Write the C-alpha cells for this entry.
Amino acid sequence: MSIRTLLLIIIALPALVLGGAWVLGLKIPVPEWGRDYVVRFLLEPEPIEVELPDIQGPDDPTRPLIVIDAGHGGRDPGSVVEGANGRDILEKDIVLALTLALRDELLREGGIRVALTRDDDRIVPLGERPEIARQLGADLFLSIHADSAGERSDVEGASIYTLSTEASSEAAARFAERENAADRLNGITIEGQSEEVSTILVELSQQRTQEDATQFSALIEREGEGRIRFHPQARRSAVLAVLRAPDVPGVLFESGFVTNDADRARLTTDEGRREYAEVLARAIRVYFARRAEP
C-alpha cells in the first residue's frame, strides 16, 4: 500500500464513520480537550540506496532466491588469528571462500537463484546487507561468519543464530554486540532508520518471518548432524542488525571458531568447505521444497 493511499484512508475513514452515524441517528462522544486522543501510524521508511548484485542461476523469477552474505570484508577483517606460518588468518577470507563454495554447490545442482552481498574483498555496511535481500525480493537470507573465543582454543563448533529482541545467552549477547559494532569500528556512517523504527522492524520480523527462520535453522542442524561439528548450544538468538529485514527470513550461520585448531582446519581446506557447502545447500533445498508444498 502506497503512502498516498494510506493517507486517503486516514482522511476518509472518519468522514465515513461520522456520516454513517448521522444517517443512523447515533451520537458519537466528542473527546474533551486535554485528553490523550492520539493515533500513531508507522510509515515504512525510504529504502537505503544499495548496489544490487547480479542474480545467478535459472532465468526464471518464479524460482526461489537466496541471498548469501559473507560477513565482514575490506578493511573489516572480522576475527583474526595467527596461522602456523606466521601469517594472519582472517575471518573475512574464510567466510568468503565458504560463501563461494556454497554458491557453486547451489548453482551446480540447479533450480535455485543465488545472489551474494559480496563476492570479493570489499566492505558492505551492515544496513545494506539485509536491504539487498529485501530489494531483490529474496525468499531467504543467510549470513555466514566465523567466531573467535579469544585466548580459549578449546571452544569449537558451529552455531546458528536467528533474530530476537533478547539474546538467548550471555555469549550470544556478546557476539551480537561485537557484530553490530562493525560499522562504527570501521568508521562507516549510514543515514538510516531511527532507533524506534529499527525496534519496530525487529518486532515485525519476529511476527512475520521468525517461524520460517527458525525452521531453516533447525534444518541446518539436522542436515549437519554427523557431518559438521556443532557447538553444544548450536541454536541461538540475539539482536543482530544483519538479520533485521522484516519480510525476509534470515539466519546467521557461525561456521566455527578460528581460534580452534580443528575448526580452523575444516574451514581453510577445500574438503572442509565442500562439507559445509553440501550441508547448507541441502538445508536450503529442503526449506524451499517445504515452502513449495501445497
In short: The chain has one domain: 65-292. Residues 195-224 form the longest helix (30 residues).
